[in-house]
Amino acid sequence: MSEKMGAIESRVYRAYWNDGLLDVFAAVGVLAIGISWTFDVVVAGAVTPALLVPLWGPFRQRFIEPRLGTVEFSDARERTNRERLRLVILLGVGAFALGVSLYFLRDRLALDPDVSLIAGLPAFLLAVLAALTALLVSTGRFLAYAALLIVAGAIGATSGWEPGLILVSAAFPMLLVAIAL
């Protein structure tokens, strides 16, 4: 019986993240960051995630839960979610520490980055965030979004596009997928 309940809970957990709201927020976030880069208001792009994250819960309560209901997951699932969140936070802190270390060691290291790819850096960083989101919520769509951001960043940067245009071009397919859900 417990095995059957675990399978049901796994399906419910996947359905919980398949409502499309997180996808809409991700696409709107990428679009807003891209627009802010395009109009040279990069600070607005930096605060976009800080504005969207706290809005997700109230939007979910207002628009999704009246149709699909609320879910309370088992203690084991909650424990798994907390472990994944810890892992994502540790990976984020590790990436930050690596970036800071590379910055301070830049003169000692013989790094010669391809300058043409620098314009794709915002897309590459958002791709890392999308991959971590895929790990956190157990959905492959966010791995596809990560791949899309990497491809858009590489193609856009080598084509001479500005970072904002690269992000805007990646946001539209994400938004189409979100709307289709």
The overall pLDDT, averaged over residues, is 85
Residue share in helix: over 70%
Largest sheet features: none
What is the count of DSSP helices, taking H or I runs of 4+ residues?
Answer: 7
Order of helices and strands: HHHHHHH
Distance between the termini: 32 Å
Shape: globular
Approximately how much beta-strand content do the residues carry?
A: under 5%
Query: Which structural class matches the secondary elements?
Result: mainly alpha
Task: Please mark out the parts with pLDDT under 50 across 5 or more consecutive residues, or reply none.
Answer: none
Strand segment tally: 0
Q: Rg, please?
A: 18 Å
Structure description:
Helices cover 80% and strands 0% of the residues. It is mainly alpha-helical and 181 residues long. Helix 2 runs antiparallel to helix 7 (163-180). The protein is globular. The two termini are 32 Å apart.
In short:
The chain is mainly α and 181 residues long.
